[in-house]
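Researcher: Structure for this, please.
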Amino acid sequence: MRRPLRSAALFLSTLAGTQALAAEPAGNVVRQAADAFGLRVGTESIGLYSQSAVRGFSPDVAGNIRLEGLFFRPAGALTDRAVDSTSIRVGLGNIGQLFPAPSGVADLTLRDPGQANGLNATLALDPYLSPYLELDGDLASPDGVWTLASGVGLYPDDNGQAGNDARYLTAAFIPRWRPSDRLTITGLLDMEWGRDEEATPTLLPLDGTLPPRIRRSRFIGQRWADYDFDSRNLGLIVDAALADGLALRSGLFHSRHKVGMDAFALLDGIDATGQGDMWVLMFPPTQNAVWSGESQLSYGWSGQTARQTLTASLRGLSSRERSGGEVEVALGPWRVDEVRDVPEPDLLFDQPQSRDQVRQWAGGVTWRLEWAGRLDTSVGVQKARYRKKSRNGADAPARGSSDPWLYNALVAWRFDGDVTAYASYARGLEEAGSPPITAINRNSLLPAVLTTQRELGVKLPLGPLNLTSSLFDVRRPYAGLDREDRYGFLGEVRHRGLEASLTGQPLPDLSLVLGAVLLDPVVTGPEVREGLIGHRPVGQRRLHWQASLDYTPPGWEGGSLDLVIDHRGATTARRDNLADAPAITVVDLGLRQELALLGQDATLRAQLLNLFNADGWEVVDDGEYSAIDRRAWRVALSTRF
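Model: Predicted structure, token format:
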């Protein structure tokens, strides 16, 4: 690391000497965050939660993604060329949200150029010397009726910490038509191509031990075991004011993720000497295609001290997925630090593939009352219809169905002194996920499950800071591996916890975002009572806290320093609870500087990630580990024309 660090320091010092502009640094996620529960802007994110992890669950897996506030089920993720920001909605963030999900919602906002015209170019080096180029264009007609946000991203050599690499190309186009202040029509075309993404083996030790320490830059996999994909997202959103107080919001989306080649690698049965058995699963072409969307018709009316809103909603989903058909390639005995090239085998994909189909509809009504600046309450009820069919080869299809009533309620009261207390309850239908690759029924699908959430919270000012805290209780059926490595429902899991966020500016030039969550995850059921599995769910931790700050030293115009300290407690690693991944603390240090470069406004962004090179393990699945990212640096220079 020494030579890259010296090069980065020289590059930074040279650019920092360029004439600085007295401007607010752009894209500063710390200064934009309203709480510590999760915000992503561009490629940077902070907070306790993310699109894949909220209170111990995944909004992505559960189907709790919203696009511009509308129900959206992506088969392949939207790229940063299309998405401006992602906000995690929990607690008070659910006020005004239609049918909040028990496991939390990830709400995506599309890019919008407004009245701006211009081209933003970013040339950067990501971790492990990964160059990339991003071009984002903003175009608006003189009268603002037409706008177009577009962009392309080229990532020709995206390097991983394990010595693997990949290549990506992204593109997005978001046209908007605003013929009047009562109508907006937004289109979406978002695409991504990935090639040669090599599979890094996960590690599965014996007897509840942790994997031995390894060089994180050593690639022990095979170059022919890689992943190629094409992903596409299409959408149309209509916002229309139909009459006084009457509004329509509607969105229809199609998402397709097509895989030409896929691989999974596992070093299994690692003993105390670091010896195990390597095997690779190679997959034939697969595809997942999803139609999803939502229409919301709302009517609002106001009295002398109150405003009421009645909203009717209809959500729909139709998905088809072709998966499985893999072939296992055994590579034999292997050490955790062994680098060996094995000739690519001639594979015959003659195993049957699974073909899965889901149909889902949900119609409901929500009533909201805002009274005298004090009370904000809402009640919602939905009727859902869910059908799932799965067929493996010539086998008879397996079917699952559910027709539940879903409901939610939230009440918030604002006291004198800008103190707000709230309580909420939600019952939702969420996807349970799919089996891990090590399950003997890895190509099967589980039906959707009912999930409930209860919550109490408060928000209050503490001088220049705002404190938001809540107690929550989320419950749902627990899916995991049994003693025969069959994936299914083994009982119920309850995630009860306390979360807190403290944000604000204690000093004029200092922005602070502090967050912590204490979680008590518990599994109950016959498997636990019989001692077949432990009472702690795999992949969960009891403590997670994060401190983020952004500071502009006196006399430093147009720039700032930022620091993120992220601590994650010990993580349950096995279903028998005989091993934990140890706690880990990672520190990131960054610099942002506005510049005048060759007559153009520019922004320099530089970061040192995992500053102290902390070493530790992520829990991939039951008993499976991968190493956390080692120390790395990134530098990006953006300019607007």
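Researcher: Any notable elements?
Model: The longest strand covers residues 246-270. Residues 2-16 form the longest helix (15 residues).
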